Amino acid sequence: MITQAAVYGLGGIGKSELALQDATRHRGRYRLVWWAEADTPINIQTSLANLARAICASPHSIAAGQATVEEAAAWAMAWLSAHPDWLLVLDNVERVADVEAYLGRLSGGHVLITTRRDIGWQALGCASINLDVLTLQAAPALLASLISGAARGAATAGTESEAETARELGALAEELGCLPLALTQAGGVHRLHPRHERAPLPAPAAGHPRPGVQGGGTGP
User: What is residue 21's predicted lDDT score, i.e. its pLDDT?
Assistant: First the structure.
């Protein structure tokens, strides 16, 4: 069974969204799920400290609230090391070295990493998962599903043929590099602005979105 995995790929490819969907879908399997911002060592430590305070949240947890970030993060690592059945998502890791010390101590649960770095993970015992751009067949299909209320409606009304719509969607998908995040943003613009009043397309995002559950978790 894979207990530690690193999902890598370009910015905007959908790594965080994939991790979010996985955490949400399998939430019932774990006694605790925690999302940690992991782009810097300080953010990793702060996220772990927040985990400690969440675990200890009660009227009798004054000590947890008074602990320093370093102390609380160390307590969280001790708790994770001593308990099974948890999921820790380390989102947007910039350097393998930033999480190396943590991974060696986390064996009782599951760790899911999102990163743009494609090397160094297997040496730490992590399964590497390459998340690539969509194909030129799948990307237009995604766009079509996102703007079905606008573009398809226009096509059936006779203002443009379905073939022309398909060509436009293919060209747009290719222009956006078939990046899922950029396609989703473009689809949202098209839904808000039908063809007769279409707004300029948004520029492809350089990074990725922060999921809504960021910094949250479930209690033990």
Answer: 85
Please say whether the beta carbons of 92 and 40 come within 8 A: no
* Beta carbons of 23 and 130 less than 8 angstroms apart: no
pLDDT of residue 138: 73
**35 neighbors 213 (Cβ within 8 angstroms):** yes
pTM (global) more than 0.70: no
Q: What is the pLDDT of residue 217?
A: 46
Cα-based distances in Å from 153 to 48, 83, 144, 218, 220: 49, 54, 11, 43, 49
pLDDT per residue as tens digits for the range 54-102:
988 765 566 666 889 999 999 999 999 999 999 999 999 999 999 999 9
- Which of 219, 220, 181 minimizes the C-alpha distance to 203? 181
CB-based contacts of 133, cutoff 8 Å, min separation 6? 10, 13, 139, 177, 178, 179, 180
Residue pair 130/118 in contact (Cβ under 8 Å)? The answer is: yes
CA distances from residue 140 to 2, 16, 147, 202 in whole angstroms, order as listed: 33, 22, 11, 17
